[in-house]
Each structure stands twice: as structure tokens, then as C-alpha cells.
Amino acid sequence: MRVKIALAEKGLDYEERAEDLFGGKSDLLLTSNPIYKKVPVFLHDGKPLCESSVIVSYIDETWPAPALLPSTPYERSQARFWADYIDKKVLLFLTR
Predict the structure, then answer these.
(1) Are 52 and 61 in contact (CB under 8 A)?
(2) How far apart are CA 76 and CA 54, in angstroms?
(3) Dihedral, CA atoms, 49, 53, 58, 64, nearest 10 degrees?
């Protein structure tokens, strides 16, 4: 969801492909993410990027306007802290 939000905030068009994560993963997914073999995977110019936080950083650096993170280093670090907290604490709690 994080990648979809970043793309929407940037106003970027994209093609989304659904994956059958339980019945058989596609060859595209397996070759694009051979280590973890999971989504999300973002393909740009034929190059795969994996893991939502990495993908969002790439999107923000590749298409700088509008910026996804605040302008000061302190505020950016706070935003990253809360994103990490949500990943490690909140989402873990919700999946129990």
C-alpha cells in the first residue's frame, strides 16, 4: 500500500499486476525478487526494486516533486522513525 500511496502522491501512472501468492508465484516475481520471492516489486526501466521502503525512497529520489518527506533532516528522520515503528510494532500486532 505504501508504494501505491507514493505513486499517487507523485501523480505517476503505473501498471499493477496481481500475484497469486498462495497458488503459484509468477516467473516475473521470482526473477525480479529471487531472494525473498515476495511483493512488492517495482520495475522501472526493466530494473527491479524490492521492499516498500526502498521502493518509496527510489520513487522520491527519481521524481523529486512533490517531495514525500519533510525538508529538514530532523523531520525526515522522525518520519522514518514512525514508518519503521509501524512496520515493526503496529503491523506485527495487527497480524497476530
Answers:
(1) no
(2) 15
(3) 160
Residue with cell 529471487: 34
Q: Is the pTM of this model over 0.70?
A: yes
Alpha helices in 1-96 (DSSP H): 2-10, 27-32, 52-62, 73-85, 91-94
| pLDDT tens, position by position, 57-79 | 999 999 999 999 999 999 999 99
The amino acid that residue 2 corresponds to is R
Distance between CA atoms of residues 92 and 69, nearest Å? 24
Q: Give the span between the Cα atoms of 73 and 59, in whole angstroms.
A: 18
